[in-house]
Amino acid sequence: MDELEFCVKSLSYPLGMLLENLERKEGELISVTRRAITLPKLPFAALCYLTGIALFDSLDLVDKKRLSNDYDSLEVFRRKLLNSKLGEALRPYLESPGMYTSPGEILSVDWLEFERRANRLRPYLEKLKILAEKKDREAFLGETKFLSGLSVDEGLLLGYLADDRKLKELINAALGRHNPAFREAVKRYFRALGG
User: Fold this and answer.
1) Within 13 Å, how many C-alpha atoms sit on residue 45's CB side?
2) In angstroms, rounded to a whole number, what is the distance separating the alpha carbons of residues 154 and 147?
3) 43 phi and psi, to 5 degrees?
4) Which of 1, 70, 11 is closest to 45 using CA atoms?
5) pTM score > 0.70 for this model?
6) Phi, psi values for residue 21, rounded to 5°
7) Which residues pair with 37 in a beta bridge?
8) 38 and 15 in contact (C-beta within 8 Å)?
């Protein structure tokens, strides 16, 4: 998993699934087909947001409706970027996404595969919910060593499945503390995000 897939999955795991195994090509505009994604040379933060928008725009109507909250996550990310120290440099990309994306093929999320992956992680999520209700932050982090064996991809999906922002933050903190692969992926992501 590269930093772009990590970024998109951190915003919308199902959209990020569409990036899996796609050939990456260089081009003028972001465009997605079933086999490849064309990516221009842009600042990474803008590329992540615009890739998420291009993937969402490529969805069939049923998936667009199903992932409407994920679109909201993309917009929250856009606002955070605009209010960051990179905001002015990123503004042209973030305020005119249509200038940097091009229609591609209509895609749909493999929901059977999503459910297969999610079902494997739901027992972890239930255990984490119980711990979060009973423990303060430090005690919670102390009892979440069982997350150390998850892959980076599973960690991102676990965070996506958390239906509460506070729980998602606790899960990410636990993964950062106990899961070296996840911690390294986060570091690479933030380095890329910083430019």
Assistant:
1) 24
2) 10
3) -55, 140
4) 11
5) yes
6) 65, 10
7) 24, 32
8) no
Cβ count near 147 (within 10 Å): 20
State the number of CA atoms in the 13 A half-sphere of 5 facing the CB: 15
d(C-alpha 52, C-alpha 156), whole Å: 16
- The separation between the first and the last C-alpha atoms of the chain, rounded to the nearest angstrom, is 19
Is residue 154 a contact partner of residue 121, using CB atoms and an 8 Å limit? yes
What tens digit of pLDDT does each residue of 133-182 get?
988 999 999 999 999 999 999 999 999 999 889 999 999 999 999 999 99
182 contact partners, CB below 8 Å, separation of at least 6: 150, 152, 155, 175, 176
What DSSP string runs through 20-79?
TTPEEEE-SSBEE-SSEEEE----HHHHHHHHHHHHHHHB-HHHHHHTHHHHHHHHHHHH
Give the 3-state DSSP-derived string for 84-145, with helices as H, strands as E and coil as C: CCCHHHHHHHHHCHHHCECCCCCECCCHHHHHHHHHHHHHHHHHHHHHHHHCCHHHHHHCCH
pLDDT tens-digit profile of 84-142? 999 999 999 999 999 999 988 999 999 999 999 999 999 999 999 999 998 899 999 99
